[in-house]
């Protein structure tokens, strides 16, 4: 029995590592594709923060939902969305999750538990609260997890949403990804408090700080918050401290962050950390670890091939789907 | 009209367990204007929610609930507070479907009371429907009678699209026939409230009553005014409007909103796009002056269009020197 449990635990850990490698490979490849002009607009890479999405989503069940941000690819991959359909979306093809209408910042797949990525900073926080209340009204026992950044923590809608979520005791978990920088403005210049989680007290909910580069710690803290939400005891504010290794976006050429700060965080790489744990405490061979990294890279390459082979949307389709079907809607005519 | 709206809410909450109401003072008090009266007692606190004064969160929560299949109705006590929710409505509700490639729907209704004409001053007296007409993905409705208000609110709640439903507060006390039996009023269908052959007045909400009053006065002078109540601003029933102008050859558009960038401007533009050849004179807009709403009665009266302004507008369209 103990041996079986250990095997299952090891498989789960390897799965976490694979997901983190997939995010890393996806983002680095997406940045290349941006440079090759295959991706328009921009791409906001999640490199260095993989443990937050993967750890938090590991605490969710298939019926739980998430909302995401402009930096959302990691959340999608962690929630189990398909790399191929994601890449097709980001390249703007018909097979993408949103048929090329949304792009990098708007991937939506409700059947996979992804309510949508939201490129208005903090924009999805109230959406998460409402979705959570809606699930409860429908008698479903799902929980909604809302990802947002340290920059979003100073938006009005976030305060409103946290307060409303607490008042309604909605089954929602707020996960603040504190990566220390809002483009060029350090968190310390945006707030006088060291921990965003302290604000939870003002909403009457628990606030927890966790090492965002420790995937297992993130998973465990989130699991507790999810259990609390599911039990009807209301939201929790989890603050995961981490750092964005890549620039704000693929289109951002100027980075004001001190190089030595970046180096210090590179040394705390969440993927290498889990790899070390697997090697040292679970006796996983280096060859197996390389195999997982290689598999992630292959998965991403297949996604790119799939995406590039997918058809481009037809220009005339630009006028479709503004409205849901309705009696008053004349086909071929906008309102 | 408030009672008719209240009936619509009672019936739709009864009909569909996914419908719920959220807003300030909507539960215990039954709404500042009693539109949500009796809902709490009948449907409970999970479906009739007294929310904190956080309009943006209320609207955002509505979007989220809609995404998981509910049909939320959010009440803004005063329609001017749309400025607080506009990101959630325009950047989220209106475009979530399109951004998802048509894979999701956002069946959501945002109701608000347009409170001009009663001395509520500049922050509580705006008529801002044009902001929402400008956002692709929204439906915009402004009823003028109890019958239309009830029927259209029921249609709005059942529609799979986000709807902005603006109610003129001065019309809440207005009486009118409402059938005992179940009915709805279709979205996107204008209603000719008075037939006439000389000039078309296209309008909505309180403008309909100004136009009808003007029409009654002008009838005594032998002028037959056709009053088209647009009811739904988006989608616009261009067919009824064009049909009317093809008959009369003249168009006046009446709105209580400030003139610049108003929906009246859009109606004139759409009509000239479609039926310029039918026009025998330049279309006329009768609108509020482009100033923030003043408080004192003589000033507010000077800013808002009055019956005599509508009469003057009709005379201008008729190129007629009044008797």
Notes on the structure:
The complex is a heterodimer of chains A (335) and B (323). Chain A is an alpha/beta fold and 335 residues long. Chain A has one domain (11-308): Thiamin diphosphate (ThDP)-binding fold, Pyr/PP domains (Rossmann fold), CATH 3.40.50. In chain A, 45% of the residues lie in helices and 11% in strands. Chain A has 11 helices and 8 strands. Chain A has helices spanning 2-35, 50-58, 73-79, 83-91, 125-137, 156-168, 200-203, 215-230, 259-266, 270-282, 286-309; strands spanning 65-68, 114-117, 144-149, 172-178, 181-182, 185-186, 207-211, 236-241. In chain A, strands 2-1-3-4-8-7 form a 6-stranded parallel sheet, sandwiched between helices. In chain A, strand 5 (181-182) and strand 6 (185-186) form a beta hairpin. The model of chain A has no long low-confidence stretch (mean pLDDT 96). Chain B is an alpha/beta fold. A 7-stranded mixed sheet of chain B has the order 2-1-3-4-6-5-10, sandwiched between helices. A 5-stranded mixed sheet of chain B has the order 7-9-8-11-12, sandwiched between helices. Chain B folds into 2 domains: 2-171, Thiamin diphosphate (ThDP)-binding fold, Pyr/PP domains (Rossmann fold, 3-Layer(aba) Sandwich), CATH 3.40.50.970; 191-317, Rossmann fold (3-Layer(aba) Sandwich). Chain B is globular and about 60 Å long. Chain B starts with a helix and ends in a 6-residue tail after the last helix. The mean pLDDT of chain B is 97. Chain B has 12 helices and 12 strands. Chain B has helices at residues 2-15, 39-43, 55-67, 82-93, 96-99, 129-133, 146-158, 206-219, 238-248, 263-275, 297-303, 307-317, and strands at residues 19-23, 48-50, 71-76, 109-114, 139-141, 163-168, 191-194, 199-203, 225-229, 232-234, 251-258, 284-288. Chains A and B meet through helix 5 and helix 6 of A and helix 3, helix 4 and helix 5 of B.
């Amino acid at each position: 029995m103990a041996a079986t449990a250990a095997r299952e635990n090891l498989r789960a850990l390897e799965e976490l590592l694979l997901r983190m490698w997939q995010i890393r490979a996806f983002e680095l490849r997406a940045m290349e594709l941006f440079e090759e002009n295959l991706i328009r607009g921009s791409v906001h890479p999640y490199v260095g923060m993989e443990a937050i999405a993967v750890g938090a989503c590991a605490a969710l069940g298939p019926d739980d939902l998430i909302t995401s941000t402009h930096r959302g690819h990691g959340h999608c991959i962690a929630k189990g969305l398909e790399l191929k359909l994601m890449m097709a979306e980001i390249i703007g093809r018909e097979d993408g999750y949103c048929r090329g209408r949304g792009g990098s910042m708007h991937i939506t797949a409700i059947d996979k538990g992804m309510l949508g990525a939201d490129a208005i900073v903090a924009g999805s926080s109230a959406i998460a609260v409402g979705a959570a209340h809606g699930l409860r009204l429908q008698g479903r026992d799902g929980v909604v997890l809302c990802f947002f950044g340290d920059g979003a923590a100073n938006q009005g809608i976030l305060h409103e949403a946290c307060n409303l979520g607490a008042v309604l005791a909605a089954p929602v978990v707020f996960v603040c990804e504190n990566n220390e920088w809002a483009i060029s403005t350090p968190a310390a210049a945006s707030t006088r408090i060291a921990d965003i989680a302290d604000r939870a007290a003002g909403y009457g909910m628990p606030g927890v700080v966790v090492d965002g580069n420790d995937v297992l710690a993130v998973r465990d803290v989130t699991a507790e918050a999810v259990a609390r939400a599911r039990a009807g005891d209301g939201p929790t504010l989890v603050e995961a401290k981490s750092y964005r290794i890549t620039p704000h976006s693929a289109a951002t050429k100027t980075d004001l962050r001190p190089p030595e700060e970046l180096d210090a965080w590179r040394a705390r790489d969440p993927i290498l950390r889990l790899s070390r744990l697997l090697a040292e405490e679970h006796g996983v061979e280096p060859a197996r670890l390389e195999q997982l990294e290689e598999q992630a890279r292959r998965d991403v390459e297949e996604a790119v091939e799939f995406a590039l082979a997918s058809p481009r949307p037809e220009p005339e389709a630009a006028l479709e789907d503004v409205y849901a079907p309705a009696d008053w809607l004349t086909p071929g005519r906008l309102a | 009209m408030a009672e008719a709206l209240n009936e619509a809410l009672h019936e739709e909450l009864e009909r569909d367990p996914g419908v719920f109401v959220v807003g300030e003072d909507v539960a215990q008090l039954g709404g500042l204007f009693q539109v949500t009266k009796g809902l709490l007692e009948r449907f409970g606190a999970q479906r009739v929610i007294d929310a904190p004064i956080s309009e943006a969160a209320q609207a955002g929560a509505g979007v989220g609930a809609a995404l998981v299949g509910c049909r939320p109705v959010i009440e803004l006590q005063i329609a001017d507070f749309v400025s607080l929710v506009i990101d959630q409505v325009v950047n989220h509700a209106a475009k979530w479907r399109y951004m998802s490639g048509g894979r999701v729907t956002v069946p959501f209704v945002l109701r608000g009371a347009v409170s001009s004409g009663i001395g509520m001053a500049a922050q509580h007296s705006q008529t801002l429907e044009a902001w929402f007409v400008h956002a692709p993905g929204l439906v915009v409705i402004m009823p003028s009678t109890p019958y239309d208000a009830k029927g259209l609110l029921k249609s709005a709640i059942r529609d799979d699209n986000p709807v902005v439903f603006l109610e003129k507060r001065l019309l809440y006390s207005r009486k009118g026939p409402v059938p005992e039996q179940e009915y709805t009023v279709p979205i996107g269908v204008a209603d000719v409230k008075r037939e006439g052959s000389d000039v078309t007045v296209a309008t909505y909400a309180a403008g309909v009553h100004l136009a009808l009053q003007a029409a009654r006065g002008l009838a005594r002078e032998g002028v037959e005014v056709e009053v088209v109540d647009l009811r739904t601003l988006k989608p616009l029933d261009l067919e009824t409007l064009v049909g009317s102008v093809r008959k009369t050859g003249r168009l006046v558009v009446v709105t209580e909103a400030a003139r610049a960038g108003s929906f009246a401007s859009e109606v004139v533009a759409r009509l000239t796009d479609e039926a310029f050849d039918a026009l025998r004179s330049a279309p006329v807009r009768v609108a509020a002056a482009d100033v923030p709403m003043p408080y004192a009665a003589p000033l507010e009266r000077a800013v808002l269009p009055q019956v005599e302004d509508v009469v003057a507008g009709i005379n201008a369209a008729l190129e007629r020197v009044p008797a």
